[in-house]
Amino acid sequence: MNVILLLLSLLSPYLSASPQKEAAPAALYGSTSAVVPAFEHSRNISPYISSFDSLADVSLYMSKEELLQVKGSPLTVTSDPWQGCQEYHYAELSAGVCEDAVLYVHVTPDQAGQFGLRMNGQRIDPLRSNLSELLGTPDFVAEDGDVYMRGNVALKVYRHALTGEWDGIDLFDGNSS
After folding, report:
1. What is the pTM for the complete model shown?
2. What is the pLDDT of residue 83?
3. Cα separation of 31 and 27, whole Å?
4. Cβ-contact 172, 82 below 8 angstroms
5. Which listed site, 24, 61, 69, 103, has its alpha carbon 20 to 30 Å from 173?
6. Considering only CA atoms, which of 142, 117, 145 is closest in space to residue 49?
């Protein structure tokens, strides 16, 4: 019996609920500074892109009027035979506009090289960036590229069949055909 009591007394700190800490008045510690060193902010920021809101500063589902306000007049407008929509061609991107809303955005490597490439306002470089760090593992791997899904929005990074280098990038409604 003495052994059991001895064991219980030795283990009691681990078996009982942790004691509540007493709150100390903030005045005891002096005033707290709102200044946080810059390095503390940067180590908490993840480069992972958790949503696909815009590509090349064009958002999916933005109206044709908003597209024209953001990007101005397109260089050309052509018919998209696959979607039956209009494709607005700009120097830095092409945007598919169906029923007065943007349903896809396409950027080529040449356009990205000349104008840069931004995803959700964040600069990305598919040639130098670690896309797996930014996008994670592809949700689908197709013959012509990798597809990443965020809700019903998809991002496809097209790859050259022989070299594996990226041939283009599309942001589109994953529910569209």
Report:
1. 0.70
2. 78
3. 7
4. no
5. 69
6. 117
Q: Residue 122 in contact with residue 146, Cβ under 8 Å?
A: no
- Those residues with Cβ within 8 angstroms of residue 160's Cβ, 6 or more apart along the chain or in another chain: 166, 167
Tell me the average confidence (pLDDT) per consecutive run of 10 residues in the chain, 177 residues long.
54 50 48 46 65 93 96 95 90 94 94 89 75 86 92 92 88 79
Question: Quick one: pLDDT at residue 82?
Answer: 81
Identity of residue 167: D
The token duo for 67 is: 């597209």
Q: What pLDDT score does 10 carry? A: 57
Beta bridge partners of 139: none
> Is the CB of residue 137 less than 8 Å from the CB of residue 146?
no
Find tokens 């600069």 and name the residue. 123
Tokens 């929005």 sit at which residue?
A: 153
Contact 148, 154 (CB under 8 A): yes
What strand order describes the sheet that includes 122-124? 58-59, 54-55, 117-119, 122-124
Cα–Cα distance list, 27 to 1, 20, 41, 96, 155 (Å): 50, 21, 27, 60, 52
| 15, two tokens | 């078996």
What CA–CA distance (Å, rounded) separates 159 from 168?
Answer: 7
